[in-house]
Amino acid sequence: MRAVKITLGKNAGPTDPARLESLAATWGLSAVDRADLAPDDVALVVGRDGLRLVHGGVYRRWHPGMLHTLREADCAHPWIRLSGLQRGESVFDGTLGLGTDATFLAEWTGRRVIGCEVVPVLALLASEGLAGVDVEVRCGDSLDVLRAMPDRSVDLVIADPMFQQVDDDASASLDLVRWVADPKPIDRAWVDQALRVARRAVVLKDRARGGLLERLGAPVIHDKTRRAARYGAWPIRGS
Ligand SMILES: C[S@@+](CC[C@H](N)C(=O)[O-])C[C@H]1O[C@@H](n2cnc3c(N)ncnc32)[C@H](O)[C@@H]1O
Fold first, then answer.
1. Which one in 4, 96, 199, 224 has a CA-CA gap of 20 to 30 Å to 120?
2. pLDDT (0 to 100) of residue 205
3. Does 139 contact ligand 1 (Cβ within 6 A)?
4. Where are the domains of the chain?
5. Does residue 100 have a pLDDT over 90?
6. Which residue out of 182, 193, 197, 212 has the highest number of ligand 1 atoms within 8 Å of its CB and is therefore the one to mutate?
7. Is the beta carbon of 119 within 6 A of some atom in ligand 1?
8. Which residues contact 43 (CB under 8 A, 6 or more apart)?
């Protein structure tokens, strides 16, 4: 995982140095002077206008991603349609990122979603960006979190691993995630834990023309067009 630094922005206000110290200590980021950043460094910039990531002179903030398209899809979105999720049911998102999917699912179910992100700076940006949204952000490897969860303790478990979006989604704003995200794919051990924990279904997202779902043996595959992301579902028997 890439080490992320933390630095003060040009526009830092009087309380920002203390905020920087506290964020550095809480999230394990090493503080540097802005002038000492190397071109390849990724750093969290603390300023009057909040937090940004910088890499190679490009700045990016937390953003809600394509949330509007998920809202438009509503019940027809594969997270809902393939899982059979019902209003009021619970969801665990094992690859939170900036929390677009988790936000959609929290709004759709009307229930708190637990979202797990392994990269601390992304968990931090998601916690800030999702203030006011009913998503509980946990920082850690979702495989470890799933292992600690009781059998059949959540209705739906989802994952959208990183490598899937590298060429699917041209949005420049996703740079922020790409600079630091953990590209480790979801494996069979992860699916087995998710199947133990889920009551209704496990659903994974795969890249357009990807082979992840076949490799992991997904029994239901939604592959609408060769240009769009694919989704695979493991319905839980008797749910
Ligand atoms: C493609 S992004 C997810 C985007 C997310 N679905 C959204 O709506 O914003 C994948 C994220 O999962 C994280 N990740 C990858 N493996 C993980 C794991 N085992 N546990 C927790 N987070 C993980 C990556 O660091 C990355 O931020």
1. 199
2. 95
3. no
4. 5-60, 67-235
5. yes
6. 182
7. yes
8. 4, 5, 6, 7, 32, 34, 37, 53, 54, 55
146 Cβ contact list (under 8 Å, min separation 6)? 92, 94, 157, 190, 193, 194, 196, 197
Average pLDDT, the chain: 92
pLDDT digits (tens, 9 = 90+) for 14-56: 999 999 999 999 998 999 999 999 989 999 999 999 999 999 8
Residue owning the nearest CA to atom 12 of ligand 1: 95
CATH number for 5-60: choose from 1.10.4160, 1.10.10, 3.40.1630, 3.90.25: 3.40.1630
Is residue 185 scored above 90 in pLDDT? no
- Domain covering 67-235 assigned CATH 3.40.470.10 in the classification: no
